[in-house]
Specification:
The protein is built from five helices and seven strands. The protein is an alpha+beta fold. Helix 2 packs across helix 3. InterPro entries: Acyl_CoA_acyltransferase, GNAT_dom, YpeA/RimI_acetyltransf.
Length: about 170
C-alpha cells in the first residue's frame, strides 16, 4: 500500500494520532489554559484571572498544541523571558491526549520560538519522580543543575524535591 494511503488509514483508525499544530496563545485562551492547568496534577491550579495576567505579560510566551482542526488547545507551554534566559513556568497536555506525542511537538516548537527571540538558556523545575516529564526534557537536552528539597507539596501532606534543569540553546 502506498505511504499516503497508509497514513490515511492510520488517521482513520487512530484519529488521535493525526498531526498536531502549534500556535501562540493570548488572553482569549485564559479559560482554556486554566482548565488545562487544573488537569495537570499540580497542587494548586491556576485560575482564569491569573492565566489572563500571565498571557498579557509581554515577557511571557505561551504556545498551545492543537489536535487536527481543534479550536481549543489540548496543551500549552508557558515561559517567562528575561534578557537572554527563559524559565518554563508550566507545560501541560490534557490527560486524554497524553502519549500522543503532543508534548514533544509543543516543547520543540516552543524552544524554537525562544531561540528565535534570542534566548540562549532555558530553565525549568520538575517534580522528582515525574518520569515522563523528565524523559521529555532529557530528550531535548535539558540536564539537571540542582535540586530543591521538599519543594512540591503532595495531597497527603508530604513534600517532594524539585529537579532544576537547564538547556543551553546556543
Amino acid at each position: 500500500m502506498p505511504s499516503s494511503a497508509m497514513d490515511w488509514l492510520r488517521r482513520l483508525l487512530h484519529p488521535e494520532s493525526a498531526p498536531a499544530r502549534t500556535g501562540r496563545l493570548d488572553v482569549r485562551h485564559a479559560r482554556h489554559v486554566a482548565a488545562l492547568h487544573h488537569l495537570g496534577g499540580f497542587a494548586r491550579g491556576w485560575e482564569p484571572g491569573e492565566c489572563a495576567a500571565l498571557l498579557a505579560d509581554p515577557a511571557v510566551m505561551t504556545d498551545g498544541v492543537f489536535a487536527a482542526s481543534a479550536a481549543h488547545p489540548d496543551g500549552f507551554v508557558m515561559s517567562r523571558k528575561a534578557a537572554d534566559e527563559a524559565e518554563i513556568l508550566s507545560i501541560v497536555v490534557s490527560p486524554a491526549r497524553r502519549r500522543d506525542g503532543l508534548a514533544r511537538t509543543l516543547l520543540g516548537a516552543h524552544l524554537a520560538g525562544l531561540a528565535a527571540k534570542g534566548v540562549v538558556q532555558v530553565f525549568l523545575e520538575v517534580e522528582d519522580g515525574n518520569l515522563p516529564a523528565e524523559k521529555l526534557y532529557r530528550h531535548f537536552g535539558f540536564r539537571e543543575v540542582g535540586r530543591r528539597k521538599g519543594y512540591y507539596p503532595k495531597p497527603d501532606g508530604s513534600r517532594v524535591a524539585a529537579i532544576a534543569m537547564r538547556l543551553d540553546l546556543a
